[in-house]
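Entry 14. Structure prediction run on the chain below.
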Amino acid sequence: MTRIAGMAGNRGRNLLNIADRRPGGAEFAVVLTNSEDAPVLEAAAERGIPTEVVPLEDGMSRREHEEAVLEALSGYEFDLVCLDGYMRILSDTFLDEAPTTLNVHPALLPSFPGMDAWSDALEAGVSVTGCTVHVVTDATDEDGAVVESEVDGGPIVTQEPIPVYEGDDEDGLKARVLYEGEFRAYPRAVKWFAEGAIDVDLEAGEVAVDADVASTDADDHDGLPARRLVSDDRANTLRYGENPHQDAAVYTDYTCDEASVVHADQLNEGAKALSYNNYNDADGALNLIKEFDEPAAAVIKHTNPAGCATADSLAEAYEKALSTDPMSAFGGIVALNRECDAETAEQIVDSFKEVVVAPGYTDDALEVLFEKENLRVLDVGELGERTERFTEKPLVGGRLVQERDLQSISADDLEVVTEREPTDAELETMAFAWQTLKHVKSNGICFADGTETVGIGMGQVSRVDAVRLAAMKADEHAEGKDAAGAVMASDAFFPFPDGIEEAAEAGIEAVVQPGGSVNDEDVIEAADEHGMAMAFTGQRSFRHD
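Output returned:
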């Protein structure tokens, strides 16, 4: 376990933050200050941390004071020294005898060293400042006098950027650098030391961090970085969030080259702006139609597909997608993966839609679409490649980050496990249904016929209920099609045969699912009893948000 000697001159808020968080299991052996009135003494004592006071007495030189500090610390065992507002420049008298000593400076060194970093940043008019955790090195001459050019000049361990906002004053910026910058960066540095993941080369003036690497070296993964810095700029404030009592804004990453609704041009400028929910649904719709090379259309409602289809023409694809569940499509989002033509536009405006997303529009299509005053028309430009690698989900106190689910399957990837082999047409439908199902909230079930959906069961806490919902949608909501003879795709394995029984009752004749349940044999037996074909993908496609 790493034990720390903390040295502070006043409140020691960084030290107390580290003590409370115990990064890497590190604990404080002692907190020392040179002022008997320093508030950190009482705060440390409340946490059960021993304290020492070594006042700077009249006539005491720098080296004499440091020798007294070393004497006061000699009764404690510690592996790391952490400074926090310790207003004394340390010389080699202390640094040569102590273990590695860290300090945190309220600026992105080498910019704005010295005592007034916040004011210097504001005066310089920079848009970003931050903090730096660095190794403390000797900044004195042979006589113990401070060499100003060498202060805050030790090797950098880590930094944290903080934006400077228009209208910031010194107090506001100082607080933000502390709470949003130093409170992140200092524990991170201590954790690296505690885990033995850091190597300091004072002669070379370098710090190497082994922990700051990808999470895996597997051949089929690049891994996840130990630290992600995400800096987005606010593009616009929104009327409200998911509900009217929630404030909201949309932020943009200008380095993103992939077609996105955030960067899309809204062509009918007179229409109202996109809402929070519009952005969320439009993003989901666009991601779905990116799955297909053939002309594809999707209608999304509350981030779930109400229908999706591919066809020889865009208008035909839209007609098939809409007919899956036209009732649920009311007020939905339409996404197309081809330039929208007038024939498709005429179908879109035939019922109420909120947004249309496409990689371009003919003039005739725009003339039709613009007839609907508040139908937002988004041009995302050429779809191109899917280049964004990660998706994120914010949590209170952090965020989940994962690689995007870019899996795709073909007939060659499927393992047939039933007595009956799927037909070529069923294999094609399995692949289509699987690509669509990736965008259905779990537990998800997709009924499909050819390359069009006929019923979708989404967001159920029971897989068999998702099957029942898909069957109900197919029988009661779909126009001109039903579940009879269709293929069923499941985003995870069937734990029991009951899902297959429900599917058979609905008329399903083939199933694609991941497999992997302890009850796979029972599920396969049920499929065989009903003359179904079943294939395993060997991988699931959960979507939980």
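The two ends are 39 Å apart (CA to CA).
Filed with the rest of this week's runs.
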